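Everyone, describe these structure tokens:
***
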Amino acid sequence: MTKFIGAIDQGTTSTRFMVFDKTGDVVAVAQKEHRQIYPKPGWVEHDPMEILANVTEVIGTALAQAGLSAADVEAVGMTNQRETTLLWDRRTGAPLCNALVWMDTRTDPLVHRFMQEGGQDRFRAKTGLPLATYFSGLKLLWILETIKGARAKAAAGEALFGTMDCWLAWNLTGGAEGGLHVTDVTNASRTMLMDLMTCQWDAQMLDAFDIPAACLPEIKPSSMVYGEIVTPPLRGVKLAGILGDQQAALVGQTCFSAGEAKNTYGTGSFMLMNTGIAPVASKAGLLTTLAYQFEGEQPRYALEGAIAITGALVQWLRDNMRLFDEAAQIEPLARSVADNGDVYIVPAFSGLYAPYWKDDARGVIAGLTRYATRAHLARAALESTAYQVRDVVTAMEADSGIRLAVLKTDGGMVANELLMQFQADMLAVPVVRPKVRETTALGAAYAAGLAVKYWANTEDLRANWGVDKTWTPAMPDDQRAAYYRSWKKAVTRAFGWVD
């Protein structure tokens, strides 16, 4: 009987369930969006119960689409929006508040509180991360300090902390009736609470942030059999892989050797370079993070350039500015003009992440004249993604000493061929789109499949990877330099907006 591997892909704007065969091809997929909740400027929340319900729905839809049942699924992996933080009641399973999304900036006062002694890089040597609103630990601290009764429950082990992987794993494996409270090394490495070298919660970090250990999940490898799913429609199937979404894409792109890199274009954009079995400290504004850990093996590390807003800028132009009705319409609109009309958009809606790390930055549209049209704004929005990726590539090359030879890409925005060509032009290297574009879900499937020997080893996975399309640079050097100079000028205009 032919068996398949399933993958839950719980993202920032939607949740998907995908089914893959042994060649890594998609057998079935179902997807559902969830609400984006904005209680105050800079605050972004999700309803964890809505997301949990959506997970069950998309699993059922995808299985029905392919005529499959739980008996046809060998194992399931999970990948998730990282850093999104929640605390829930162990007894009832009810969240104590909505989940705080990774791009939420309400912890800015906490960031500045901790920066007063030791600066932004105070904990970087141990955690690989600068103090920023991005990471989970300070979001948890905000909940503990703000939500009535949260600290007492957490200290007693009556409330459980987790990122979205942890929340879903707990519910799928039994919830209040014995659900597993686990996370993997990649998600744990984004909390600022884990020691990079030991891959365990660090007592000094818990003390510094005043986080009770009783509420924390157990840290596990990214690929292993954690337990069985007990809820329909996957009852009896092994849960065998957990990876943060960007690390999952790295695995899905089969970047298993030091120096191999990928960039995912989604709500934000995230570039990861595998640095092997040793963490590389960044001096150029990047993050040092876990890449993955397969059961029985040493953890692998990565350098990461995290960009908060790329695809989300397209959504903003669609939903807030009403420049077009569907996201796909941005490409023909942008193509209707020959260039950006000297318009630059710096989408610092949540501050600027790598390599700047400016929490006080806010969005800027620069270079406006009466000549500018909505088409120029559309083109500037797409180009801003390519400029931000170049910022990260420059930093990554400086830290790693490796010159990028080719950029592997994935995520929703890779369907935009104008963007892909402009990206190749800005980097002056080829940009490659793989045959399976949604490599985030594929990476989660690979982690689960390795754990149950569905795939024998990483060489099996490499054999599945194939190229769909390659874009090569076509822009003259002087024009590339002129565009990038103007971009850097626009970026500085975004700095220091918040007092």
Observations:
- The chain has a mean pLDDT of 94.
- The first strand starts at residue 4 and ends at 10.
- The radius of gyration is 22 Å.
- Residues 374-400 form the longest helix (27 residues).
